[in-house]
Amino acid sequence: MNLPDDGLILVVKEDCATCQMIAPLAAVLEQQGLLKITFSQDNPAFPEGLNVEDDRDLETSFRLDTEIVPLLIRRKEGKEEGRVIGWHRDEWQNLTGLNDLGSDFPEQRPGCGSLSVSPGMAEELQERFGETGLKAREVSVDYPDDPMEQMFDRGWTDGLPVVPPTPARVLRMLQGTRRAPDEILGMIPPSGEVCTVEKAAINAVMAGCMPEYFPVVLAALDAAMDPDFAWQGLMSTTMGAGVCVIVNGPIARRIGMNWQHGALGHGNRPNATIARALQLMVINLGGAVPGGMDRSTHGHPGKFGLCFAEDETDDAWQPLAQSRGIEPGKSAVTVFGFCGTSINNTETARDADGLTGSLSMCLNAFFHPQHAGGGLAAGLVLSGEYWGIYRDAGWDRARIHAALLEGTHRTQAEIESGVTRSSGGASSIPKFDPGDLVLVRAGSNAGLFSTIIHGWGSGPSGSQPVTREIVP
What we know:
Layout: E1 7-12, H1 17-31, E2 35-40, E3 52-54, H2 59-63, E4 68-69, E5 71-76, E6 79-85, E7 87-88, H3 89-96, E8 108-109, E9 112-113, H4 121-129, H5 147-153, H6 167-174, E10 184-188, E11 193-196, H7 197-207, H8 214-224, H9 231-236, E12 242-248, H10 250-254, H11 269-284, E13 306-309, H12 320-323, E14 332-345, H13 352-365, E15 376-382, H14 384-392, H15 397-407, E16 409-410, H16 412-417, E17 429-430, E18 437-441, E19 449-457, E20 466-469
Parallel strand pairs: 1-2, 2-3, 12-13, 15-18
Antiparallel strand pairs: 1-5, 4-9, 5-6, 7-8, 10-11, 12-14, 14-19, 14-20, 15-19, 16-17
Helix pairs in contact: 4-6, 6-7, 7-11, 8-11, 13-15
């Protein structure tokens, strides 16, 4: 970039009404020897008749930190002395020293956005002309090789196509957080490879995340690396466990997450990609490849990643994050180790007690009807219709949770015979420890369904749900 040491320089684009308006003034400034050069972002013949440099590659605009055009800059002895964006008559007169410049022009007109800051372009230009600050090793894929196929060949996918993490895309992802790219977040199991913010961003790009999802990814990653979550065990158990991410708070609505129809399934980008980013990290950083360090006997589709938002549209329902200590109004994630899901249907239950009895039977059959005494975790997702039955009866989260824990107590004889309906009694044995039953509300308001999220082992040798507040 060759700039004059002294004088004025101008950056314009033809596709800007204000740039077209000031073109005659640019001619006046050039005739008087004040304007040394004009850079045009979209047409090297505009403005006609002036000394115009072609800036269609936007390198000069990038290096001049151009956000708005027209941009008029005064330089002296090789340094910038001042600049004006758009058209402000007094400011142009002050910068040029011509007190009558544009006296018959409007007092001011807003400029237009520079092409160098159009969506996605800033990161592209940073990669081409600036210092990226990225530390990860860059892999070149030369034509005719296909980057998508190369990523399959190198084992960098979960079996589905991934987005190639070009430097520009990674830089764009890093715009989603204020954290430094080289900040160390922790070690990814099973191998214990160190993960930085940059490496997390790379895998978030590959998963298909948008930058606005990245704070959720980082919070979920922080929760998953908590020793209580036992991610190492989840990735190496033969039971086939994965990571479920439940999102609460304003960020769920802001990034467009789904908590209604099909919330636990396909069709929504943040739901589909946030937990997938964590799974790609354990593949690409942790080495958790099926048959290698991932020892799943069967696995399950949820190992691609299960993520959904809780339905918080009814103030009568206390969100999961608040029940776990997060302040109201804050956004948070809860990670839950799980081994698949099952849908349960109770068409005949029309009151809170009957519904609780039905749900308790489903929960007692979970894993095995003869298992009891704690040591396993489960999530229960209530549909809108089920919540409506409880709400109309005046039940809140706490009462539902307590009733389900009570309903999943059985006597030793009932457990031994595999009976799932409890008869109660002081000598009964619990199916779950209180903290191992996670209650969530999601799904549409049509359908008398619940979904059990099958947890992994709990307790000192198992995995505990972990909640983290989401911060930028």
